[in-house]
Amino acid sequence: MDVLQQGAAGSAPPASRADSNAPVAPPMLSPQTAWRVLCRRTGGHISRATFYRWVSEGKVLSIRLGIHIFIPRPSLEDLIKRCLAGQRF
Hints:
This protein is mainly alpha-helical. The protein has one domain. It is 47% helix and 11% strand. It contains four helices and three strands; from the N terminus they run αβααββα. The chain has helices spanning 3-10, 31-42, 48-57, 73-84; strands at 28-29, 63-65, 68-72. The longest helix is centred in the middle third of the chain and has 12 residues, at 31-42. The N and C termini lie far apart (70 Å). The model has no long low-confidence stretch (mean pLDDT 82).
């Protein structure tokens, strides 16, 4: 048996993703989905145009990957709390 076969036979199984120390990314939503969740949770008083303006102005944290925009779920939850508290943007 050569060295490669011995190393492969005696090696431990590869570590699963849960065992790694890599940070876990928060769930991401499309702007359309994020706006719908925001409207449902706040009573629907925010227009689509206003939400998209907040995203483009940076008032809502967003991540752009190429031509796609994503809203992190924790950022949306923070926005919902601020809206329900009556904070002005």
